[in-house]
Amino acid sequence: MSQKTNPELAATALRIALAVMLLAHASLKLFVFTPAGTAGFFASIGLPGSLAHAVIAMELAAGIALLVGVYSRIASVAMVPVMIGTIVFVHGANGWAFGNEGGGWEYPAFLTVALLVQALLGDGAYALGRQREPQRAVVTA
Fold first, then answer.
1. pLDDT, tens only, 51-60
2. Is the Cα torsion angle 30, 36, 39, 41 positive or negative in sign?
3. pTM for this prediction
């Protein structure tokens, strides 16, 4: 087993944390609010109710991809529009602090940045889809 670098381990820690968060939110929509209830909420804020099903599916798929470390960059980037939509349609008018009534936009904004950082970092260590970086030539003058 090769020694893992701090950046690889950091990418893994972020990847797992994001996976847990996405899977927790999908589970909340599936088992607590239910898909029908989530669709009703989406409709109540002016979004198509069917979009709720797409969001649940994206949270599940991206959460699983991040958890196992497959297509982490794609999964992370795919969730950015969902997070921005959360800010624009759900939490943006509630102010900055997530402790505000209805939750503010600080948490989805932070998650957006974390997803972008994950996309830049890649899978990290202990990922099923991990590919080695190609050797880069060093040119000296």
1. 999 999 999 9
2. negative
3. 0.87
